[in-house]
Amino acid sequence: MDTQAVIEQLNECLKHEWTGVAQYSQAGFIIEGVLRQVYAEKFLEDAEESFGHAKLVGDKIAALGGVPSVLRNEVKQSRDILEVLQFSLEFEAKAVEMYNRALELAEGDRALVVFLEDILKEEQDGVDEYTKLLRDSGQHEASQAGQQAGKKVS
Ligand SMILES: [Fe+2]
Fold first, then answer.
1. What is the CA(112)–ligand 1 centre distance, in A?
2. CA 122 / ligand 1 centre spacing (Å)
3. Mind listing the domains of the chain with CATH numbers?
4. Which residue, 91, 84, 105, is CA-closest to 36?
5. Is residue 127 within 8 Å of residue 96, measured between CB atoms?
6. How far is the C-alpha of 44 from the C-alpha of 28, rounded, in Å?
7. Stated pTM of the model
8. Cα–Cα distance between 121 and 149 in angstroms, integer?
9. How far is the CA of 148 from the centre of ligand 1 (A)?
10. Residues of the chain with pLDDT under 70
């Protein structure tokens, strides 16, 4: 196992988790109207899940001798719930991709593989959940809305 390569990929995962903390928290803070009742808590729980993963991954990076990143990637923002759900699905799908890549690099270290598989399973649960939510909320509009990624909340 190339420890340096693993540390680098884990730091990419960590940056993604920090992004999730900010992105999901903001989505939970700003949601208004009747949907607030359902989604404010859902988004804040997802922010906490990201923070939980960040804690695990940050600790592991330090254990491997690396320096855990304090950076995050661009946060996607919207007041359109379908757009937010689409951003969330994209976020979870990217996490699956990133942990799969980390798993490839961790091959040969059984404990690290198990550690990453546990997180990967939760990321896939996120993909499954947002896929179902979007199916319920109108996939068509959401996929159109998703093409306007990066729009700032105003
Ligand atoms: Fe995560």
1. 16
2. 7
3. 3-146 (1.20.1260.10)
4. 84
5. yes
6. 6
7. 0.87
8. 26
9. 24
10. 136-152, 154
- Residue 136 CA to ligand 1 center (angstroms) comes to 23
pLDDT of residue 148: 55
User: Which burial class, exposed, middle or buried, applies to 122 when counting CB atoms under 10 A from its CB (0-12, 13-18, 19+)?
Assistant: middle
Per-residue pLDDT at 102: 98
User: What CA–CA distance (Å, rounded) separates 39 from 68?
Assistant: 31
Q: What are phi and psi of 87, to 5 degrees?
A: -60, -40
Looking at residue 10, its pLDDT comes to 98
DSSP 46-102: HHHHHHHHHHHHHHHHHHTT--------PPP--S-HHHHHHHHHHHHHHHHHHHHHH
Nearest to 13 by CA among 48, 45, 47, 60: 60
b/e for 18-36, b at 16 or more Cβ within 10 A?
bbbbbbbbbbbeebeeeee
Residue with tokens 């903390």: 21
